[in-house]
Amino acid sequence: MDYYETLGVKPTATDDEIKSAFRLKAKEYHPDRGGDKAKFQQINEAYDTLKDNNKRKQYDYARSGARPNSFHFNINGQDFSSDQFGDVFSDLHSVFGDHFGFRQARRPVRNKDLNVTVELELRDLVSTVKKTLSLRHTTGERKLVDITLPPGAENNTTMRYRGLGDSAIPNLPPGDLFVGVRIKPERNFVAQGFNLMTTATIDAFMAMVGGKILVKTIDGKNISLTIPEGTQYGTVMNVPGYGLLDKTGKRANMLVQILVKIPENLTQDRLNTIRRMMGVDIEV
User: Fold this and answer.
1) Fewer beta carbons below 10 Å: N end or C end of the chain?
2) Domain span at 172
């Protein structure tokens, strides 16, 4: 996770710019306002580091990709890094230690985290989702990792996979992998939590006398749905077990909203039959 990207600021941002960006992001993603809890935690983590000058300097150093065994030294009050002058200063430091203004830079505690986004179809979420991802490490090398998204994966959430991040620096633990989930809109279904809403159209006669229709589920099955007599336009019928996987691993419900279509181009005989049923005089 890049703290500057998380807050939406540049690495050169001032303290006031960082504070202002944090307030806006925290307000947008606060769980009490219906925001993403995981994203809100990342925003707080980023601000906790960047608001502290010492922590920010250490983070900037690790973020720059400087060599783990590099060090800084001071000449007449001006800081220099051994990365600017090559290994000769590393040899000097090994001889003189911290004398003459040399000081050892803090080694990063682990490799960098990696971030990636996966796009899913709604139909993917009716079963456990497994993905193979190609990750680009800081060395430029690409590595394949297999991940499993837990039941109940939701749109615009981020999953953390410990130890699947960058491993460019030997002898340091690997970073973590953060996977952002984006779910594509579905033409015939709308997610309402873990339930799926769809529609079915019947004619006015079936709405009055009832009957059976076939409804297609998101995973391509046709199920029979009984329409009770006297069904009104907009009635929502609940079909258990055909929604998305919830956080317990069980499938939620499919909600079918009934739309009623008035028949068109009826013959005169059928119109007369309907008029008789309604007690309307038939013109001769």
Assistant:
1) C
2) 114-183
